[in-house]
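Entry type: protein chain
Record version: 2
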Amino acid sequence: MAHIDLPEGLPGIIGPMAFRPETSVHLNGLADALLRDETGITRGERELIASYVSHLNECNFCCKSHSAFAAHQLDDGYELVDAVLADIATAPVSDKVRALLVIAGQVQQSGRKVTADHVAAARDAGATDLEIHDAVLIAAAFCMYNRYVDGLGTFAPPDRADYDGMAQDIVANGYAATAPAV
């Protein structure tokens, strides 16, 4: 049960966004800017970073939803997502994506944990400054989103299949298009 009186039946971040739609416009705008950009790493890889950080933060709703959003945009779908969540060191991702996931994992702990060596490793693997920037900002933003969801005690549907409809909508239309009306 949520800690405040949120609209019933709306899981995860959807309930708080419906509760305060004037803030959801900005939160969804940030999600669109970070996760739907087509520059550098793919949308699926961007969602993979969001899922990974949410996994590290133990935010069930965000991990499950962004895992679905990633899976629906990656060639190897849930198999790849599951491999990343199990162990980024052995997951079948490019060296560049692995380096960006390492950076994201450091940001999840503290932005100060990202070192020049992490950035150099990402650059050596082919990451651009924009991709490094976006990996850091995705990780930082998802620490905020995760705390928003869990800090209000929202619920997460238990089954992976519960997120497929949301994934199809987000992949097709984006975050801002699915935001509650202001």
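Comment: The mean pLDDT is 95.
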